[in-house]
User: Fold these one by one.
Assistant:
Number 1:
Amino acid sequence: MAGVVLGVGSPEGGDRLGWMVVERLTAQGEGRARLEALDRPGPALVTAVVDADFAVIVDAVRSPAHAGPLHRLTTTEQLTEPSPTSTHGFGVAEALALGERLDQLPPWVVIGVAIPDGSLPGEAVLAEAVEAVQREVVAFSAGSAGGVRG
């Protein structure tokens, strides 16, 4: 089994960001991981990663603009801090916490992309997010990523 890159979001506004990263990676021919866009998966996120060797999850997050556009999150504690937070109700943090309790997670990392005003980020931030995901895939594939072990 290979790793998986999940773009989490919805078809509207800045929440589409995760899908856009997956679309870019697909267009670039990323072949080291399965690429999938998920529409607010809730607990189904665990099912999407359970058989993978690793998971890189891309999601839009609410965060103060001064904190920077990208957040590399590797623990559920980081995901449940007041900022950054998911733009979903039962979101990535809750799904990963559930997966940890069920002992069903591969090594994982979340790349959170800040959308302070709810709109899509500019081209430079989108390109930076794609590059960040590619770096994580390469590191996991080489066995040197810092993701959490499930």
Number 2:
Amino acid sequence: MKFRICNINLRNHYIMSVMSKSIIIVITFLTSIIINRYLQPDLKGEYSYIMNWVAIIALILNLGIGQSVSFFKRKHGETIVNMFVNIYYLQLMMYLLIVFSLNFFYTNKILNLILIISSLAQFNSQLSFLSIIQNINKRNITAISSTIIHLIILVYIFFATSKNLNLIIIAYVLKISVDSIIMIIKNSFYPTFNNLKLYSIYEIIRFGFFPMITSLLITFNYNLDIIILKSFVSFEKIGLYSVGVTLAGMLWILPDAFKDVLFNKTSKSDSISDIQFSIKFNIYFSLVVIVGFVILGKSFISLFYGDEYISSYSVSILLMMGGLPMIYFKMINTLFISIGKQKFAFAVLFCSVLINIILNFILIPIYNINGAAAASLVSYSVSGFVFLFSFMKDYNLSIKNFIFFSSLERQKIKRLFGSTNKIEEKNELT
């Protein structure tokens, strides 16, 4: 039986994922307003600097194990899931034990804080990826719940306290902790430790090496600019740049919704038609958003973030433009991970990150934060278009497959968003 509200098919994974991400867009936007207005550019820059290090270290601690689930599930079936759950818990316990032990030797509070948050963040990301593979709708509901809780905490902090970076960091830790707990309960991700085989663990870690490096390179592409900026500009400038990153990141929430669905689908089959459809849909949607921001962006930033953040307008546009070719990367990479084409992804991303680093050191001294945004635009374009051309070559596709919607795809859009009283065809993609 198909459920519909206002003629929208609620059993369709794309629709549910897009609806969930749309809710998260609104909540994340409100969250970003509160954080930026509460911290102001200087402390917001410091917060962004810390969280970028958290993102990088969390990926290293992950060891690529989280991203390996789809490959091993296709190879071994459902029985492998419990093995991954057990490994996740072992990693978390080991990392926290190491971090707390380091407290006796190193008194750097910032470093210890980053390591603790990174340990929790990598555990959360592993559970999140597994949740997407197992039941994407449950994952979306969980993400909405934890994001709302985070917003409520931030609202209280905003009105009840004065400018305090530590409180914002605590709010983030609570968010990922609650998110992890909900995922564990809803998906029964409980450790049993009765399905641990050293050879299997070795095989998973060995396979996960390239996904880990690949994910690390992706994070470098997204986050390294803020770390490099620290060597050239003040935290206040970084705070301005981070608003551009936040606004550009919101443009990726819809593509990420499609990407989550594709991870679910490519864990079972290649899903070539789904990838093509997802790319086209998101490219056109993003173009509309970018044009709207070019026209109304300055007024938008002033209204919601304050006049002190107006300088982030040009940064936002450059990063949004870079987001277009990254849509190719995001969608196609779901397949490349599932079929084990991780060495290719590594090579492309390595070149992209290298270009990003070189251009950052060249352009930032000349153009300040706009230089960092321009460097990201170039590096995003390199990785996105190389992935696109490789995908076209591997599956004998032409460029028109990524520009024009076929009649079947147009019918699919009508089925998803249009009104219909007919029973859906058996071949409807759900």
Number 3:
Amino acid sequence: MFHLIERVLPAPLHRALLPLAHRLRDAWRRWRGVPIAGCAVVIENDAGEILLLRHSYGPRGWALPGGGIGRGEAPEAAARREIAEELAMDLARLDFAGRIEEVLSGSPHTAYLFAAVSDAPPQPDGREVIEARFFPIDALPEPLGEITRRRLEAWERSGTRA
């Protein structure tokens, strides 16, 4: 579906519609309360910095790359797909760093957390992701969302840090 939208809608129009789509999805999740699953990836470079990004929709803070897991899709496959689609990065290795139970948009959410190392420069898709940069772990940008903070803490506890 994403690839069809990408071929049909010009990037500026797609980017302009994403905030509305996000609000509708958020309202739908709150109304339904159905459990959902997603993935997040902590990508370090050789300097020990981590990759954070800003979306064109939703909260304006910095976040980890990742996204939803499709029906029947394995969490690792979803993580690789999201990184490739949104940042044009191919990760040689992904390590499972944990599973986090949280609430997202009023629905129970299972987040599968992965760790990777890459020095490849991220190339934001200009649709969902408008900015992506590596930051030193002790100098993360603000605002950084609470969910992102909890996921980073889980990653640090996991022992998958490079």
Number 4:
Amino acid sequence: MAGVVSLAVVVLGSVVLVTTAPRWPEPRLLRAAKARSGAAVDAAVPHVGRAFLAATVALASFSVTLITCWFLGKLAHALEPRVDVPMFAWFRERQLDGTWHALWSELTLMGNRAQTQRIVVVGAIVLAVAWRKRGFWIPLLALPAGYMFEKFGQMLLSKSVNRGHPPTTLGTWVSGGCARLIIVYGLVIFLVLAWLGVRRRWWVAGWCLLGLLAATEAYSRTYLLKHWFTDVVGGVIYGTMLLLFMIAAVKVLDRAVIARRAAGNNPDELGAEDLPQSHVTIH
């Protein structure tokens, strides 16, 4: 029931979000932040280069992510007797053999290293072809980089937090399955939607799909006793932060490419919706 109810809440919430998305006004603060960050990127790229700026954004954000998750890991370790141990006992007492256990044993594979590695390789190649006019090398860099950031960051966190693991497994802080799923699947969704140039409703639907996948992975890792509960929460937070900073780095690269092409000899290859705001004239 816990799994059914939690996933049903995610599905119903997603339906509401996708249905109402076209009616949402864009917050003024968000609009202003996007304009300022875009102007800053346009001003900085000619001086430091788009690759250096994107790498700076990624590495700085990665450092913030690690520091934040290290503090959260220490907090999770302190909460272990009051949160993790009771949750672990609750799920262990309610294990079901047969179809239910087999189902979640299959679903949890979505976040395993072998599965996500295949998605990184196939996704990078397919999206490089799709992005060939926009910058084929962007997906080729973004997907492997996101995977490697997650892998080595998780290794650093597990060693530095060193909180131990449940008696049934070696899983520790943070849940790599949850983090890998969010960063890899999230980047694929972002790159596909950015290439398609879809409207807000499709963006909301894409992120809701990612939320459903993440909720499935989080429940499976908890139900199958692969992690402490707070490890799973930490994996979701860690993966989300990684995804956000990788999207920011990709946007730096993409915006710089668009600005360079718009200033070149073939600006007509791009639609007005593809241009940075400073290059769009509204009549």
